[in-house]
Amino acid sequence: MSVPCVAVARERGEEVREQLxxxxxxxxxxxxAVEDGTIYVPVTDPDAVPPELRESVVExxxxxxxxxxxxxxxxxxxxxxERLGDIVILDEDDPERAREIxxxxxxxxxxxxxxxxRASPIEGELRVxxxxxxxxxxxxxxxxxxxxxxxxDIAEVYFSPRLATERHRVVQQVEAGxxxxxxxxxxxxxxxxxxxxxxxxxxxxxxxxxxxxLRENAExxxxxxxxxxxxxxxxxxxxxxxxxxxxxxMNLPHxxxxxxxxxxxxxxxxxxxxxxxxxxxxxxxxxxxxxIREAAAAADEPYEVTVETEHVVRSYAPxxxxxxxxxxxxxx
Length: 332
Known about the structure:
Blueprint: E1 2-9, H1 13-22, E2 33-35, E3 38-42, E4 57-61, H2 71-75, E5 82-84, E6 87-90, H3 95-107, E7 114-118, E8 131-135, E9 140-145, E10 148-153, H4 164-171, E11 179-182, H5 191-196, E12 200-205, H6 208-220, E13 227-231, H7 234-237, E14 245-250, H8 260-266, E15 267-280, H9 286-298, E16 303-317, E17 320-331
Parallel strand pairs: 6-7, 11-12, 11-14, 12-13, 14-15
Antiparallel strand pairs: 1-3, 1-4, 2-3, 5-6, 7-8, 9-10, 15-17, 16-17
């Protein structure tokens, strides 16, 4: 079967493929072919190809791409699932439906070693939950995010892949040479990318297992020399870094306000604070800003507070938002 293709020199293939994908004309149902130094990229509509490439459109035979089998193909409906490394996570109240979905996932082409179902809410100071393992064996996996790898065990540590975009937003603000303190670091999804961006990072967590993983992940991502990992309550260990930080991450949205005095104590002459909160949609940012201003004013050397960004991270519950305030503190 002949289909329209954009024909360009092979070395331009990836650039052109991305350009065609960006305008929505890349034909994913047919295979890209290479012949005699020319790459042929199938397109769905030759008239919609960018003008600078239209003279390169040719008709030629193309093999139909084999489509992967997905769980919906097996089930006849689209299940709700989440992936973390090679683990697929379900959130089903009906055990029989959960088992049915798990079997379909394992029969599909999704790269997967284990399927689990949430068996409890997030619990306790360590913010972990229980899981029912429905297929496969074990709850340890490697999650990849924006060029970094994180080894973790979902039964032993808290980790949310849904926050990847938010973490990247924060890391993009980091400049080489900064001193950054992550107060609730987990396995390092903020700390390690900040170190990769050139910061010196202190990362603290109450969960000793998470800190063990963080240290291993720092080695895995070649930033071990830039990351100091500390197990313990940050309120008890922060004294060693009083006045040290140029940037502080406070990703503990249910109770970060209880740690604001510590965050302010960590701040240097000038410091950016990333404060996460959960509040009602009627006033998602006001309570957090008020709490930050109160803590900054109560410091031995008070800080001027400037709110640089008020950002809704995601919807948390009906009428409630998970939000972040990026706040700059300057000593008065």
